[in-house]
């Protein structure tokens, strides 16, 4: 059976008989692994479709227990990502994140479209590309069923307005914003992990959730804010998704 799918390459490795195993995030079938005899080093259009940061169409033979890529053609190559080290590092973390969080064989068309938007935006970004990645990751949390609670205290349910100045703390261990009283209680537990950032965590996360990815092509957070957002997201995704791709991304020093 031959199936057609549009997709993004996440990973590849060499296997026996001069073949490669390609992991692709497809719109129609979700993440799947498919073998291929296409030589990645050739100059053909099919070879280009096996390279990172490429959006392509694939004709895939679906067997009883395995997939095999028969042919492929590039729909769009985001080659400019590789021309800038910051874009490349950010996009590489994005690819690693997708590979780790996507379940095998489960279509997620909204996440696929968001991923294409990210690749397009990071390929032309003239601001700090890390902000694009953080916005992308926050948007995916609800799609993956692990969105943090931002409307009320994650422990007692009180609204931020009940405390005048709102909530200033975010509980990774609790899974959302937390009021001062509950924060003091939670700090007594051995696995508590609470941040008190120097910015409004609710405003930043909501801004990430509501604005399209394209917004962040030219709008970047301040370095000190990016650094705190990175730490919070790193701990949050590690706890709830078992994934941390952010520790290796270096933020510029605050001047």
Notes on the structure:
The protein is of the alpha+beta class and 255 residues long. It has a domain at 2-77: Nucleic acid-binding proteins (OB fold (Dihydrolipoamide Acetyltransferase, E2P)), CATH 2.40.50. Helix content is 35%, strand content 22%. The protein is built from seven helices and eight strands, in the order βββαββαααββαβαα. Strands 1-2-3-5-4 form a five-stranded mixed β-barrel. A hairpin with a 4-residue loop joins strand 6 (169-171) and strand 7 (176-178). Helix 3 packs antiparallel against helix 4. It is elongated, with a radius of gyration of 20 Å.
Give keywords.
three-stranded antiparallel β-sheet; OB fold (Dihydrolipoamide Acetyltransferase, E2P); alpha+beta; 8 strands; 255 residues; single chain; elongated; five-stranded mixed beta barrel
The CATH homologous superfamily of the domain at 2-77 is called Nucleic acid-binding proteins
Largest sheet, described in full?
5 strands, mixed, barrel
Order of helices and strands: EEEHEEHHHEEHEHH
Specify the structural class: alpha+beta
What is the CA-CA span between the terminal residues? 59 Å
Q: What number is the mean pLDDT?
A: 89
Q: Using DSSP, what is the number of strands? A: 8
The first-level CATH class name of the domain at 2-77: Mainly Beta
Fill in the CATH topology of the domain at 2-77. OB fold (Dihydrolipoamide Acetyltransferase, E2P)
- Low-pLDDT regions: none
């Amino acid at each position: 059976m031959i199936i057609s799918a549009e997709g993004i390459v996440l990973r590849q490795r060499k296997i026996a008989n001069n073949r490669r195993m390609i992991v692709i995030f497809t719109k129609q079938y979700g993440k799947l692994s498919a073998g291929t005899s296409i030589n990645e080093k050739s100059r053909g259009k099919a070879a280009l479709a096996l390279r990172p940061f490429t959006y392509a169409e694939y004709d895939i033979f679906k067997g009883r227990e395995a997939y095999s890529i028969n042919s492929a053609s590039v729909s769009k190559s985001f080659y400019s990502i590789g021309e800038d080290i910051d874009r490349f590092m950010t996009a590489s973390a994005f690819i690693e994140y997708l590979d780790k969080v996507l379940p095998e064989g489960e279509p997620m068309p909204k996440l696929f479209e968001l991923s294409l938007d990210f690749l397009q935006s990071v390929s032309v970004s003239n601001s700090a590309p890390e902000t694009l990645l953080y916005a992308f990751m926050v948007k995916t949390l609800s799609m993956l069923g692990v969105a943090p609670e931002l409307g009320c205290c994650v422990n007692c349910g009180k609204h931020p307005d009940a405390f005048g100045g709102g909530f200033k703390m975010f509980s990774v261990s609790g899974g959302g914003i937390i009021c001062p009283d509950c924060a003091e209680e939670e700090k007594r537990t051995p696995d508590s992990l609470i941040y008190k950032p120097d910015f409004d965590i609710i405003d930043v996360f909501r801004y990430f959730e509501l604005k399209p990815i394209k917004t962040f092509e030219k709008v970047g957070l301040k370095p000190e804010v990016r650094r705190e957002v990175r730490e919070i997201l790193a701990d949050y995704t590690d706890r709830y998704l078992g994934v941390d791709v952010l520790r290796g991304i270096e933020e510029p020093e605050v001047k």
